[in-house]
Amino acid sequence: MFGTKFARAVLAAALSIWAVTAPADVRIKDIASFEGVRENQLVGYGLVVGLNGTGDSLRNSPFTEKSIEGMLERLGVGNLSNDNIRTENTAAVMVTAMLPPFARRGATIDVVVSSLGDASSLRGGTLIVTPLSGADGEVYAVAQGPIAVAGYAAQGANASIVEGVPTVARIENGATVENEVGFELSQMETIRISLRDPDFTTAMRVADAVNKSLGNGSARALDPTTIEVRSSDKSDLVGAMAQIERLTVAPDTPAKVVIDARSGTIVMGGNVRIAQVAVSQGGLTVTVKEEIEVSQPEPISIGETVVVPQTEVTVTEAQANFTILDGGDVSLQRLVDGLNAIGVGATETISILQAIKAAGALHADLEII
């Protein structure tokens, strides 16, 4: 009981502090990105060799066998199509990576190696040369090297243990960039800022901040996501972008209540408001007690021993108290104080918030995840 009351008090205090705190200014670079400055996904198919008998079983993974044959033929081993390959030290894998913006030839990037067949573990393996292609089909990087597996698997005759995912691995700096994405900042006529969370108010605040820094008329909001900026000095767009991303604005957020029904977690935004509403919370506690008694016949008599169940049902009704949450400018702090006044926990608060929303008194989006 003490732990529940203490946790409720801490939650109320934390939410109250959040409710009275004004939105903080944040840098534009933390809430937006520049159009065209983005990562690109790369993917490739390859083979991991050197596994200690934990690779693909070629009977269940025929594509692994075909890949081994093709690789050995390219290396001059000869035609192996009529031979049976029975190795268990090779695994077919998919290799993925993210190509950073403005990555130049010779730069290295990290790659993720994931088993494609039925290999039990990639620990101790080495990825052989694997081209990584983009969405346009062009090869932008080549990956190769020893892989590092975080998980492990061990198996005996009657038991096995698996920790983590031994069929997924990483290679730090495992791919070398061989081709560059054709994008030049000097060719841009304007700079476009893209907000990660679309919002009309935030877009206007970003445009105003840019105009104060670069001059009136430099920026305008095209929509809730995009702000277009025209720099007077097109020869130094990098400097203008560096100046813009350091500017600070106060992002506006919609009123929202997010509920995780599985864990009982409730997160409320500081803009949550409610109309006048009266809340009562109570419930019934039903206790069922079962006792088993044995009935035996009298000595030297005709009868049978039987089991007689005894059931006792007790119903306890909790006292339901009403509290009135005043209408008007009711902030999150007063909402939490009102709910705490009738002594409700997280589970009851979820039900109350759903009921208040159904009554039309909660002026916020209610999202249940």
TrEMBL record:
<protein>
    <recommendedName>
        <fullName>Flagellar P-ring protein</fullName>
    </recommendedName>
</protein>
<keyword id="KW-0282">Flagellum</keyword>
<comment type="similarity">
    <text>Belongs to the FlgI family.</text>
</comment>
<keyword id="KW-0574">Periplasm</keyword>
<dbReference type="InterPro" id="IPR001782">
    <property type="entry name" value="Flag_FlgI"/>
</dbReference>
<keyword id="KW-0969">Cilium</keyword>
<keyword id="KW-0966">Cell projection</keyword>
<dbReference type="Pfam" id="PF02119">
    <property type="entry name" value="FlgI"/>
</dbReference>
<keyword id="KW-0732">Signal</keyword>
<feature type="signal peptide">
    <location>
        <begin position="1"/>
        <end position="24"/>
    </location>
</feature>
<comment type="function">
    <text>Assembles around the rod to form the L-ring and probably protects the motor/basal body from shearing forces during rotation.</text>
</comment>
<comment type="subunit">
    <text>The basal body constitutes a major portion of the flagellar organelle and consists of four rings (L,P,S, and M) mounted on a central rod.</text>
</comment>
<keyword id="KW-0975">Bacterial flagellum</keyword>
